[in-house]
Amino acid sequence: MKKRMKKLAALLLSGVLAMGILSGCGSSGSSETTAESAASSQESAGTESSASQEAASTGTVDTSEHVDLKMYLIGDRTPDFDEVYAEINKILEEKLNCSISVDFLSWGEHDTKYSLLFSSGEDFDLIFTASSWCHYEQTVALGGFYPLSEEFIQTYAPGIWDVVPEVAWDQAKIDGQIYMVPNYSNEFGQDVLAVRGDLMEQYGIDEITNWDELKAFYMACAENGMYASQGGPWYQYFQAQGLSTTGGAPNAGELVLYNTQDPSDLNFYYLLDWDGFTDYCHQVKELADAGCWSSDVLNSNDERQTGLLTGRTAGMIWNLGSCLTYGKQANSEHPEWNVTLADPVADMPKKVNPYINNGMAININSQHKERAMMVLNEFYTNPEVYDLAMLGIEGKHWEAVGDDQYRVIDETNYGVSNNCNWGWNNANIQRTEYIENRTALDDTYDAMEAEWNANIKEAHPYDGFNFDSTKVSTQFAAVEAAMGNYYQPLINGLVDDVDASIEALRSALESAGIRDVLAEMESQAATYVEE
Questions:
Q1: Contacts of 201 (CB under 8 A, 6+ apart)
Q2: What is the DSSP letter of 30?
Q3: Could you say which residues of the chain have pLDDT below 50?
Q4: Cα atoms found within 13 Å of the Cα of residue 178, Cβ hemisphere only
Q5: Distance in angstroms (rounded) separating the CA atoms of residues 510 and 515
């Protein structure tokens, strides 16, 4: 994304969100459990509060004691990651008398292992988080994140406080309290397709701009003995209906959708009460039976890009930037593939994600909360550290072009923006790529990005809403457990009888207490909109 366009879109988005996102993302009805967790957190952090007051009054922070911090990120460690972070640690040692080690939770395991880090009391300091899709609301409800007061942020991360807009802090609030540092960049809540252009040409597919064209391409792949993707295109189906996931709802927001394209529609669309879900499940079974993806997809731990890069699938579904990155890698290794980009909901105005779609949090059990915040301030606002975390080592992985661009030297051993540096995205200092020998894929990307920025949808009140499940935590957990037996097979078309499987899922969710969850969600949403 071009830097100037990012800044312009950020200004536009701030105005949009200021109108559409009300103060605070969490439930307006305070939950006793969350309040008790916050109170306990503040009590256990008494020494930190005293330190904050002393630092604020003297203007200095004591870093005389060396500390070793630990951070968890999402994804997989790339080959040169440790070498890059050794360079980061040289800076942290000099400036803050500390070092940081990093462990990763892979894409395939973070859903099951994230909460275990907190329930087991594991000793670590910082962790990536995100609203809805990466455990923010759930972990706050469990009391896993350290609450960040304005004084604490201003004292230990003054650079972050100056950069992050007020609307982003408001989005991060649950029951009036901040538990994460949001990223500062525009990110579209819309996936696209990185697809092999040679196969589109071979199959006589001119474009993929809507659901019917996407299905036609998938069926053409199957007829020619090629897997189209690594699973069912569920998101593409409901996004084509104008729907979006609901923050904090079960299963990363997927069980309850809302009409993000119509701000006047304040209904929630619970999947088992929505005819569209049944329609999708029948269509996707047709695709699965035809062989549009492997029947063993539910047992696979492949990353999203694996199928495309290995030539096993004709396409990959992900966000615009990731599709560009892996599309370019595929083309560099197999120029004959002519990988391009396709938008299966091309005529739909685009949703810009809240700033809390990526962020960082401090573990409530961290023994070095102040130093952790100071380190995060370096990642977020120190251009040297920022460039290392995003691009790798200058002279080895990339080289500077002017003051705000970069040219890739080695894209494979570290990877541009490929190591979960998204939690501290900062559009003010982020470099954009200089492309000396532009390709058709670069031109397609720029054109699509420009179209999206010119077609940002109107804000919906629920764009900033995040459900707090604390009052129905037992039912919420039971609902998520019940979905595990039926949901993934259904959305990937891997069931023998669609209608019977939907009824089995419906019965399981009713027994688990889904109606209690829905009633509490509707109550919170009504209060949220009213405020």
A1: 338
A2: -
A3: 1-49, 56-58
A4: 22
A5: 7
HEC per residue, 11-24: HHHHHHHHHHCCCC
Order of all β-strands in the sheet with 126-129:
98-105, 67-74, 126-129, 359-362, 181-182
**Which amino acid, 239?**
Q
Q: Crossing angle for the helix pair 3-20 and 440-453, nearest 10 degrees?
A: 30
Amino acid at 299: N
Cα 154 to Cα 159: distance, rounded to the nearest angstrom: 8
Query: Looking at the DSSP assignment, which residues form a beta bridge with residue 359?
Result: 129, 182
Closest listed residue to residue 357, CA positions, set 269, 464, 239, 214:
464
Q: Kindly list the distances between the CA atom of residue 424 and the CA atoms of 128, 142, 355, in Å, as whole numbers in the listed order.
A: 9, 24, 11
The size of the chain, in residues, is 531
pLDDT value at residue 468: 87
3-state secondary structure of 69: strand
**pTM of this prediction?**
0.66
3-state secondary structure 251-276: CCCCCEEEECCCCCCCCEEEHHHCHH
Residue 319 three-state SS: strand
Predicted local distance difference test score (pLDDT) of residue 158: 97
Q: Give the dihedral of Cα atoms 261, 26, 236, 134; nearest 10 deg.
A: 160
Say whether 345 sits in a helix, a strand or coil. Answer: coil
Rounded Cα distance, 363 and 491, in Å: 34
Determine the longest span between alpha carbons in the chain, in angstroms. 72
Measured on CA atoms in the order 49, 52, 53, 54, is the torsion positive or negative? positive
Q: Give the integer Cα–Cα distance in Å for 202 and 299.
A: 31
Q: Work out whether strand 126-129 and strand 67-74 pair parallel, antiparallel, or are unpaired.
A: parallel
Residue pLDDT, tens place only, 6-23:
333 333 333 333 333 333
Instruction: Name the DSSP class of 246.
Output: P
What's the 3-state SS for 118-184? HHCCCCCCEEEEECCCEEHHHHHHCCCECCECHHHHHHHCHHHHHHCCHHHHHHHEECCEECCEECE
Take residue 431 and report the two structure tokens written for it: 């470099």
